[in-house]
Specification:
Elements (H helix, E strand, L loop, with lengths): L4 H19 L12 H4 L5 E2 L4 E4 L6 E6 L6 H11 L7 E7 L6 H13 L4 E7 L4 E7 L1 H5 L2 H16 L3 H16 L7 H26 L5 H24 L2 E3 L24 E6 L1
Parallel strand pairs: 3-4, 4-5
Antiparallel strand pairs: 1-2, 2-3, 5-6, 6-8, 7-8
Helix pairs in contact: 3-7, 6-7, 8-9
Length: 279
């Protein structure tokens, strides 16, 4: 009696499957040994103080220490990724705090140095106790992120902080820091306004001197108007420099003087510089 065709086909299929399985290595059936951070390296690792990530190529780190929980866990993870491009140039940190400081930029410097020692590095600090946002940097990063540029960045994000949009402000700050490090420009409206005030002040002083030289019968009323306008320009420039930003730019190490705030025996080369704004 002839066997059915279906039976012969089924037997051939089973033999083919057994042959294929015998050719596969045993490792193919083993459970994969996956490191969660090697699969997604941008996630970083959770430490006792916050989040940390290291650039395997440069060795520079990203550190987030959100001590007063301004950011949600999701926002912290996202900010960690936003900060990573800066590790091409140095280590970078985010720190939120309520620790009082009479000098917010010196506070940022001390925190930056405690995290990174004398590496090229930068730090963004949001201090809710004194309502100040500060950027302080050192080394190759300070060569680009100068005090005036740090002031511009902090001024550009102060409105977001006033509205309580802490992640948006931080993301914008690091984006602008990275843009500058890449050789691009950022908006610096307060710098332009300050320059305009200075130009006005100088122009009024030159006009006052020219009037004195050209006229021997200079009236008191004219003098009062010129002096009043000059005083207004001085006052405006002072308000711009004191009310919205503050600079920290210690003498260079080549001057031979030491920074009074640096630790004992260290020179000003360990200070770097920075800027801050109120919000």
């Amino acid at each position: 009696m002839r066997k059915p065709v279906f039976s012969r086909k089924l037997g051939a299929s089973v033999l083919l499957l057994l042959l294929l399985f015998s050719l596969l290595p045993a490792a193919a059936f083993a459970a994969p040994n996956v490191n969660p951070y090697s699969a997604m390296p941008s996630l970083g690792i959770l430490t006792d103080t916050g989040l940390e990530w290291r650039n395997a190529d440069t060795g520079y780190r990203v550190v987030i220490e959100d001590d007063i929980d301004l950011l949600t866990p999701t926002e912290e993870r996202q900010l960690l990724e936003d900060m990573q491009p800066l590790t091409e140039y140095g280590s970078v940190a985010f720190w939120s705090t309520r620790e009082y400081a009479s000098d917010e930029i010196e506070q940022a410097r001390l925190k930056r140095r405690s995290l990174f020692e004398l590496e090229s590095a930068g730090i963004l600090v949001i201090n809710m106790e004194i309502r100040k946002v500060s950027i302080q940097s050192y080394g190759a990063m300070y060569d680009v992120l100068t005090s005036s540029r740090a002031n511009s960045i902090t001024n550009n994000v102060r409105n977001d902080l006033t509205r309580g949009e802490y992640y948006k402000a931080s993301q914008k700050a690091y984006s602008q820091m990275n843009s500058l490090m890449r050789g691009n420009r950022i908006a610096q409206p307060m710098k332009h306004f300050s320059n305009a005030c200075i130009a006005l002040m100088v122009g009024l002083m030159l006009m006052l001197g020219r009037v004195f030289r050209s006229s021997t019968t200079f009236r008191k009323s004219d003098m009062a108007q010129v002096i009043g306008a000059t005083a207004f320009a001085f006052t405006t420039a002072a308000v711009v420099s004191r009310g919205t930003k503050r600079e920290y730019d210690p003498p260079s190490s080549s001057s031979g003087s030491s920074c009074s705030s640096c630790s004992s025996g260290s020179s000003c080369s360990s200070c770097g510089g920075g800027g801050s704004s109120s919000f």
